[in-house]
Design brief:
Blueprint (H helix, E strand, L loop, with lengths): L30 E2 L12 H4 L61 E2 L13 E7 L19 E3 L2 E5 L5 E5 L5 E5 L18 E4 L11 E6 L4 E6 L14 E3 L12 E2 L6 E2 L2 E4 L2 E2 L12 E5 L5 E5 L15 E2 L11 E3 L4 E5 L14 H6 L2 E6 L5 E6 L15 E6 L5 E7 L7 E4 L11 E5 L14 E5 L20 H13 L15 E3 L12 E4 L4 E7 L3 E7 H6 L28 E7 L1 E2 L4 E2 L6 E7 L4 E7 L27 E4 L3 E4 L6 E6 L5 E6 L9 E5 L2 E8 L12 E6 L6
Parallel strand pairs: 2-37
Antiparallel strand pairs: 1-18, 3-43, 4-5, 5-6, 6-7, 8-9, 9-10, 10-11, 12-15, 13-14, 14-16, 16-17, 19-20, 20-21, 21-22, 23-24, 24-25, 26-27, 28-31, 29-30, 30-35, 31-32, 33-34, 35-36, 37-38, 38-39, 39-40, 41-42, 42-43
């Protein structure tokens, strides 16, 4: 399959880079009384200190604008005063609804609707387009990447814009019923302006028919937790301070854009669980990756999980802060009301590519799925997908829950955890242990590496019961280009780099190739899963990276400054780019493994795939390249060729009971309908912007609709718009 790429010459480049959307991540249980300690590793100040900028002390007061709405601190609520929650819409969704980001509490992205079928999907037409109004400000660097999935309850869609405005829209006509203006400043937007979804909540204390009985809740890029009435969009006055909570409380030194909430906060047994992303690559002692619980009724604080303070689940007082630089969690979490757990995907500690300053506690929970007790904030179990991660393999996917029917007749509550590595882990969600039918094997990894006092882990975990979403190791024969000279340049680049397969350790004297790259494998779009058939549908990318560590002195020469110093300059372009890694001995040069002249990847296509896996049979049903070359080409110039070459993709899929999958995600800017039996593309439509979001489906008055946010994505190089595009079959004439 991959050899056909040489016949396609000048198809790919520029907009197919798909370069990283990640964040250095994980979580935590509470406040720290002293500045961060480096006692577990001695690194001379001469190696970590910059001569060009000053590292602010962690207890420096927060910069102006960090508490965007100037909100007072929130009080703590004893857990025994938490009201008893009532059943939520997402626990057992009505067939016509899509009441949560992943449709249901299990995040299956599976709908029982059957009106749109493989036989009639070719007749789909646009029913309406709704415009969110969020577009890049004139004269400003574009950071927009909406990533929004609407939710649908009753007759309405509820969604958020890329800049955290919230809207209620008539699900049949697209007419706006209300809009809540978040008044979010452009200066608060991290490298990606994204709001993946809002959360729908039914109160247990406010009677039906009263304001804020049903609520829409979102976390914002400027770190507020906001609750509005689902009926009219007005702030819920009894929640927090007039409807808002300051999520920067207890975080210590930070500046706007350093920390932001991009994923919907699940509500588990009445507890809103909030995580956040921390901007990648800035400094070792970045703001904390703490995960916190809040009362869904009052907005009051309940608990914190702060990795380096595992026994303290309270808020810090005004003179202290949560432990800094800990792994943060930016992916969508999944709750389990029956077990009282929330499953938290984590990443690595701040400073992605250097691990010597990490604590033992951080190393235990980085790049893992962690089950947190929603009444205490304490981890109940941890399953790690990468040991001592220095490749930015943070988990971007949302865990999916299902019941596994074993051969002996037993039913095991299970969890599917996709990863950027393309490894998919199947765990008992009560214990975090791999299911017997899906063993995990520790395989030798390149060790110890090349960085003084920072050896790599001797082994890494491999899931042997689920087919890998990936290709064999790269070889020089895989190098290609639009011409023989391009191919030669890539061969030279390959030979100059250090590469020994997956987990090639970071290098200082030469570049190293990271494959899979940090965009996956499977990233934040996650997977969809049919609980009736046991079929898993996944889209994934193959985008190697070309990285190198540089000394602090060299990083200064290259002006690799962290975001919180005056010398920092916002980066233009569509890649996440190089990393300062301030307060460590090394900065990092990070970029795609491509021909820098044509901006075409050096490895042969495909760069994007779709795969259907029968989990019960442990086999691939089919696998195909995904995404056409129509909007891709050298120097970012579209070829307009309708050849399915396989492009990078971000965003996810949905499955329906009629045997269809719908997915945007690819850089061809199309919505695709896929036959789940064969993988054949049955229908496409060109979107007004990039479809880097998860599609969803619903029904109103017997008519089924499919919706996708075509907001585009600046890191993927796809066109930006503010259009939510909704499709349906033609209405029958009466």
């Amino acid at each position: 399959m991959r050899n056909q790429a040489y016949l396609l010459g000048a198809l790919l480049g520029g907009t197919i880079l798909g370069v990283s959307l990640s964040s250095a991540q994980a979580q935590s249980p509470a406040p720290q009384d002293t500045p961060p300690s480096t006692s577990h590793k001695t690194v001379p100040d001469s190696l970590t200190a910059s001569s060009l900028f000053h590292d602010p002390a962690p207890d420096t007061p927060q910069a102006a604008g960090v508490n965007a709405a100037n909100l007072p601190d929130i009080d703590e609520l004893p857990i025994d005063q938490l009201p008893q929650a009532v059943p939520q819409e997402s626990a057992d969704p009505k067939p016509d609804d899509w009441p949560a980001y992943g449709r249901d509490d299990r995040a299956t992205r599976y709908s029982p609707l059957t009106q749109i079928t493989p036989e009639n999907v070719g007749k789909l037409q646009r029913a309406f387009i709704y415009h969110t109004g969020s577009l890049p400000p004139k004269g400003k660097i574009n950071r927009l990447a909406a990533e929004t999935t609407p939710i649908k309850v009753g007759d309405s869609l509820y969604l958020c814009s890329a800049t955290n405005d919230m809207m209620r829209v008539d699900a049949a006509t697209g007419q706006e019923k209300w809009r809540f203006h978040s008044h979010e400043s452009y200066d608060a937007i991290p490298f990606t302006s994204a709001c993946k979804a809002v959360t729908y909540y039914t109160s247990s204390t406010v009677p039906e028919g009263q304001p804020c009985h049903n609520r829409i809740i979102e976390g914002t890029l400027d770190n507020r937790l906001i609750a509005v009435d689902a009926e009219d969009g007005k702030l819920c006055e009894t929640f927090g301070h007039g409807g808002q909570v300051n999520l920067m409380q207890g975080m210590g030194w930070s500046v706007p854009r350093f920390v932001g909430v991009t994923s919907p906060s699940p509500i588990v047994n009445g507890v809103i669980v909030v995580n956040h992303e921390v901007l990648d690559g800035q400094r070792r002692w970045a703001p904390s990756g703490v995960v916190r619980g809040y009362d869904a009724e009052s907005g009051k604080f309940l608990w914190a999980w702060d990795v380096n303070n595992p026994d303290n689940h309270h808020q810090p007082d005004k003179d202290h802060y949560y432990s800094r630089g800990t792994p943060n969690s930016w992916a969508a979490m999944t709750g389990d009301n029956a077990l009282g757990l929330v499953y938290v995907p984590t990443g690595n500690s701040a400073a992605d590519y250097y691990s010597a300053l990490r604590s033992e506690a951080e190393n235990r929970v980085s790049s893992s799925v962690v089950a947190i007790d929603v009444r205490t904030g304490a981890p109940r179990w941890v399953f790690q997908t990468v040991h001592k991660d220095v490749w930015d393999y943070d988990i971007g996917s949302q865990p999916t829950l299902f019941d596994y029917h074993a051969d002996d007749g037993s039913v095991i509550p299970a969890l599917i955890m996709p990863t950027k590595r393309g490894q998919t882990f199947i765990l008992d969600r009560r214990t975090g242990k791999p299911l017997p039918d899906f063993p995990v094997v520790e395989k030798p990894a390149p060790n110890p590496g090349f960085v003084k006092d920072d050896p790599r882990a001797p082994t890494q975990p491999w899931s042997t019961g689920v087919p890998r979403l990936g290709f064999p190791n790269l070889t020089e024969a895989d190098m290609w280009g639009a011409s023989p000279l391009d191919q030669l340049a890539c061969r030279i680049k390959f030979r100059r780099a250090h590469y020994v397969g997956e987990f090639t350790p970071p290098t200082i004297k030469q570049p190293w190739i990271e494959d899979p790259g940090y965009n996956g494998g499977n990233d934040w779009g996650s997977i969809s899963y049919n609980p009736q058939t046991g079929i898993l549908f996944a889209n994934w990318s193959h985008m190697p990276m070309y990285d190198q560590l540089v000394s602090r002195k060299e990083a200064d020469k290259l002006k690799l400054f962290p975001i919180d110093v005056p010398e920092y300059t916002p980066r233009h372009g569509i890649t996440a780019g190089n990393a300062s890694q301030a307060e460590t001995p090394y900065g990092a040069l990070v970029g795609p493994f491509w021909n820098t002249f044509t901006r075409m990847m050096c490895n042969a296509p495909p760069y994007g795939m779709i795969t259907a896996i029968d989990l019960k049979a442990h086999k691939v049903l089919w696998q195909h390249p995904f995404g056409s070359a129509r909007a891709n080409g050298p120097w970012g110039i579209a070829t307009h060729l309708p050849v399915t070459i396989g492009t990078p993709n971000n965003g996810g899929s949905l499955m329906t009971a009629s045997g269809l999958a719908f997915i945007g995600a690819a850089t061809d800017n199309q919505l695709h309908a896929i036959d789940l039996k064969t993988g054949k593309t049955l229908w496409t439509d060109v979107l007004p912007g990039g479809g880097q979001a998860n599609a969803m489906t619903y029904a109103v008055n017997g008519r089924q609709y499919v919706a996708i946010m075509a907001g585009g994505h600046h890191l993927m190089g796809t066109p930006v718009s503010d259009a939510l595009v909704v499709y349906a079959l033609p209405e029958e004439k009466k």
